[in-house]
Amino acid sequence: MSKQKEHKMGRPPAAAPTKTAGAAKQVAVAAPPVRARPPFQPAQSHLVAERFELHDRHRLLARLAECLARGLQDPELLYLGGRYAASLGLNALACRFLDPLSTLLHEDGRPAPAFFPVGLLYLGVVEPAKREIVLEELRQLAAASPHLTRILHLVGGDAQGRLLAGSPPRLLQLVERYCSHQLWQEFAAPTNGNGNLTTEVQRGAQEATRHYEAGQVSEARRALENILLCDGDQPEALRNLITITSEQHDMEAYCRYWRRYVKLLLWRIMRGDHAAAAYDDLCHFYVRVATITDREFNESPQKTPERLRTPGLLARWLEAHAGLVWLDSWHRPHRDQQAQLGAEELKAGRLGRLAVLQFWCQVFYPEFYPFLDLGSSTVDAQPHCVFDPELYRAPDPVTAEEDGSPSTAGTDGKPKSRHRGSALPFDPAERLWTRFAQWFKFHFGLRNNHDAHAETVTALAGLVARVPHRPYARKLAAIFAHEELNPPPYRRAVREACSLPLRFRLGKFLEGKKPNWLGLLACFGDADLFDCLTPDLRLFLALACCHQNATARAMQIACETLPDMEPDDFEEEAQNGQLWKNVLHANLQAIMEGKEAQRQEAFARLTKQIEAISVEGPQKQFRQDCLKLVRDAEQTARIHEQVDRAVKRSKELVKQNNFDEAVRTIRELPNEPEDLQKLKASLLEQVAEARKSAELHKRIEHAIEQSKKLVGEGKFREAKDVVHRLPSEPADLEDLKRNLLGQIDEAEQQKQLHKRIEAAVEESKKLVGKGKFREAKDIIRQLPDQPSELKELKKNFLGQIEQVEQDANKIQAENKEILSRLSRRNIDWSKVGRIASDNNVDMSNPFAFNSLLKAIDEQLRGR
After folding, report:
1. Please, what is the angle between helix 128-142 and helix 115-122, to 10°?
2. Whole-number pLDDT of residue 52
3. Are 351 and 37 in contact (CB under 8 A)?
4. What is the mean predicted confidence (pLDDT) over 297-312?
5. What is the pLDDT at residue 163?
6. Residue 300: left if φ>0, alpha if ψ -120 to 50, beta else—which one?
7. Residues 632, 64: Cα–Cα separation, whole Å
8. Inter-axis angle of helices 452-465 and 354-364, nearest 10
9. Rounded to an integer, what distance in angstroms lies between the CA atom of residue 71 and that of residue 65?
10. What is the pLDDT of residues 784-830, one digit of tens each?
11. Residues 6+ apart with CB under 8 A from 769
12. What are the φ/ψ torsions at residue 303 (nearest 5 degrees)?
């Protein structure tokens, strides 16, 4: 194989890589001691998940399950989750990962070739009923390939679907049962004389090399893709596929394998699985991409605007250069060297070049963003290295033979570094800023803010703004000032260049009836982005902080922005000036709404913060105007506190009917400003109304008590006169008078009715005594039937009279019988009358007369 082809095809893939020794050794670094950390949270894991301890597998599986719960559907993540779950015997959880992956790899119900490794894993976790379906799909994929048929035979079934005793499903079952590491040695050993997976991968690499050397690019690609079907963890195969698909101009496959290759290397760096080699490979890959793509802009500088709009070109250029920025930073042992910032900036929470990694992941590989761990910005007492120390060594120099560019190696074979501590052939940060400044001259070829090119330029601005630009200030200043009659100051030019694309994103957050303040804060709130924002973007950021109740942070942003504002910003109705005052008013409102005991201290702190702004000219006058607003607000707050105390005190005095003292308390308030004078008049009027209301209430109570007393004495007319003397205003008092008069009339009617009932009852009793029952009933019936109680009383009276009448008839019959017996004894009516007269007995009363007759009869019988 020629040297060029050897580079393209790469070395044969190693099927069983081992860990580099000394992964946890400490690295001695010069003072000050700073923690040197990898870009990802360390996790000792591997795509071959069955190698590692149960604790590690469970921990990593939990992280992957969190990603699945958040809706991430990245095929590599799904496949990795299935591998971990299967290695732990969690078949149901493994299916949760593999089911959506299987759906992605099926089209019109038919499996894609990439389903083959997923199906192999499916065989060990799926239910028996579904296992046959998966096996049949694997047979369909393997039908046209003896190579895949041999692989299917190795992992659990031959052409007839018989299970082999030494197949991985059987071995996995034994491992779960006995936890024996030696069983994996059996897995790696040849099976039935057909070889193992390692042999298959090596055979595929040799086949791909042979085809490529013969010029059979399609066959070489097919061989490499078969290697990935056997084992997806093959970066060399992926890198060679990128080369081949580029030669075939298959952009869809080229982009797919590009992303897959980069993600595989990132996973290796994150897992600590040959991290140094993965780091090296990623650096070499991005150096080649950066060199080739940047050459496109050198070949035709007049057509650069159109070149920038070439689909995918700017995105690949940006990914490579930004990736090299953070890769170049991570091999440095000191935090200040990694961030390229000073101690004060690190203490302020700045990340410098390390912030590029965060935004780079968000833009290009968001599935890796949750795993980022950039460490602390503070100085550690005992620095240590979490990755293999070799990860931090400088990558091998990239020579002309590898990337086609002039060699940067010196006579001693060592690379010529263009910046301290870097072994890259160029400074990616410098190239990023240089191209960015050059392209700003023609506004990056932007035509509108809705197309894909605008999104890429926005990402470019976000990444460039996070790279410290002070090391390149002189060169950038010359670029910004080139062909300018009146060039702007350097800092202003940098901010205008970075903010031009970022304003597209600002417009999206502010559109609609309800602005997305939280999204705006998340987009522009990065401390490393702040210095490259124009005053208007900063002030919108401050306004977003106000809407999220972070008024102190908003005021800090506004104060840091004031020195950078232009004279035009302080003219009447200028947007930036109004935004600044809006932030100030939000802070004043927050102080007014806060606790009264803390207001004075808060006003003093705000005044000191504004006075500390060092400005001249229009900015100084604007600062004085803002200080006056603060003083006015403080005075207003004091007046409000005094008014609140006076109102509270006057209310208590009014409740105690101490109206004179309440009036005196209100009159002690100042007469300025004019609004306060109006408030005093209103409060005095309210006290007067309260006094008048209290006096009227007292008069009403006296009238009610007096009328009650007169009604009790039966003096209804006098009681009504007392009520009539009450005033008729307000309207509710007229209603009260009407109710009182109605109650008096009702009481008078009740008393008259009571007298009538008493007279009727007395008269009916007399008539009943005389035996005049009909007349007694007539008198009772003449009483009214209302109210209902009176009707019930009438009914009872009539019942009693009827009962007495029935008893009287019986007594009269008995009296006749006794008189008959007495007449037989020569006692006639006249004698009985004399006896009744002597004993004062009313003979018309049958009951009294009956008692007399019975006494006479008993006396005669006793003789």
Report:
1. 150
2. 66
3. no
4. 82
5. 41
6. beta
7. 57
8. 160
9. 10
10. 877 788 788 888 888 888 888 787 788 878 878 888 888 887 777 88
11. 842, 845
12. -100, 20
